[in-house]
Hints:
Low-confidence stretches: 1-12
Strand order of the largest sheet: 5-9-6-2-3-4-8
Amino acid sequence: MFAVLSGCSSSENKGSSFVATVLENNGNSLLVEPREGSDELRSADKIVVYVKDAKLIGEDSKEINMEDITVGTQVEISYDGAIAESYPAQIRGCYKIKVLG
């Protein structure tokens, strides 16, 4: 079952985004905690973000690899707006993750 926060497509110009802290990096997914006050935090305090097709961007706006994203890092996650209602919640439509400075 999916809770749709926004009925947008997965193109980079549409969808939703939120800031979160990385709790775990599992190689093909991140476990994150949404920032206080975000709509996503109202859905779940922990979210698994699958990054299969996501563009990964470092603080310097250059592409990075998954191993460059470490526990404790603040990231901005851009996704299609759909969050699976499970625990932890799940985002499969992630198209960009940007490391914040």
